[in-house]
Amino acid sequence: MLFVFSLIRVSKSWWGAPHYTVARLAETRLSPEQLKYINDILETWTSEKAVFHDTANWHDDIKAANVAIMANWHFRNQPIFSSDYEGDFSYPTTYNITDASKDCINTIMSETTTSQWILGFCFRTLSHFVADAHCPVHSAGRWSKAFPDGDRGGNSQAVVCTYGQPCRNMHMLWDSACLDFQIWPLSKNDVDEYEKNLTNLLNNYQPKTYLPETYQSTDPDVWENEAYRYASKYVYGNLPDDFTANDTYIKEGANAAKQLISAAGYRLGEVLLKFFEARKNSLPQLYEKPKGTWLIVAWVINGILICVSVVYTVGEIRSIGKNRHHKI
User: Fold this and answer.
1) HEC profile for the chain?
2) Looking at residue 230, what is its pLDDT?
3) Is residue 157 over pLDDT 80?
4) What confidence tens digit (pLDDT) does each residue in 231-269 have?
5) Does 35 share its domain with 111?
6) Quick one: 326 and 185 in the same domain?
7) Within this chain, do residues 161 and 310 fall inside the same structural domain, yes or no?
8) What is the pLDDT of residues 29-47, one digit of tens each?
9) Which one of 6, 173, 199, 221 has the fewest CB atoms closer than 10 angstroms to its CB?
10) How many domains does the chain have?
11) Do 95 and 123 share a domain, yes or no?
12) pTM, two decimal places
């Protein structure tokens, strides 16, 4: 485990490192040409990040800037009822993570979507929310006597933990993948280390081994329902009555979290592969910017034309001046 508390930021979804990891896992399933196409689409938003794995935290950056318009897109907390719950539960109807994910999947698959701006928005949205849909505390919350209106995906549920801030409450503990993905932002050395972790996930956490029937699913409802089952078993089911996140709880939780992170990366890659398959005959063409030698040639030609224009203009001005002097 990596314990670097000074670099941790408080957030309301998987922390930055799990999001980065999910996007990088998805990238490993694409060809270099496919990944370049996506990054070129992202680059049309000149003020924003333009590399797919860098966009994985874009929606959290927006939320952190107090832009609340898409706040409900990060979760769909289905209820887990404690034995002492006596309330009259009614689930709120709101546009949530599965709605946003479904709409973006349908949008990028449609031949009528030709706007690079819309494609860029949906790639950014999917790079983030496919990951969140696999986070147990974005898929479930517990309703109990102590929390008759729910514990807000674990945000209200304090836990007893010896590791301080990272496990201040249930939500924070699981957003860090039970302390296994804490460092963010990543330094150059951290990136190298996380690239090694990708190999570990690819080799030791293959989704088809623990989700054999659904590992290729691109249905957000399937993702959310599986994360809900993980929440029932590992988040709340394994928690001692005194709410102590002991070493056994954290170890089993970290293993479960890595299974879901690996599944999210595989399925995000599956969505992108299906995009290229569905749009193989209708892929919006990108404007090709001149590169390398041709870019230098273009600059030289532009410089020559500017110089010629300046010389011509100066010559015209002098000619007009001479004519005026002759007339006088």
Assistant:
1) CCCCHHHCCCCCCCCHHHHHHHHHHHHCCCCHHHHHHHHHHHHCCCCCCCCHHHHHHHHHHHHHCCCHHHHHHHCCCEEEECCCCCCCCCCCCCCCHHHHHHHHHHHHHCCCCCCHHHHHHHHHHHHHHHHHCCCHHHCEEEECCCCCCCCCCCCCCECECCCCHHHCEHHHHHHCCCCCCCCCCCCHHHHHHHHHHHHHHHHHCCHHHHCCCCCCCCCHHHHHHHHHHHHHHHHHCCCCCCCECCHHHHHHHHHHHHHHHHHHHHHHHHHHHHHHHHCCCCCCCCCCCCCHHHHHHHHHHHHHHHHHHHHHHHHHHHHHHHHHHHHC
2) 98
3) yes
4) 999 999 988 888 999 999 999 999 999 999 999 999 999
5) yes
6) no
7) no
8) 999 999 999 999 999 988 7
9) 6
10) 2
11) yes
12) 0.82
CATH number (domain holding residue 253): 1.10.575.10
Q: Is residue 285 part of a domain?
A: no
pLDDT, one tens digit per residue, over 106-129 is 999 999 999 999 999 999 999 999
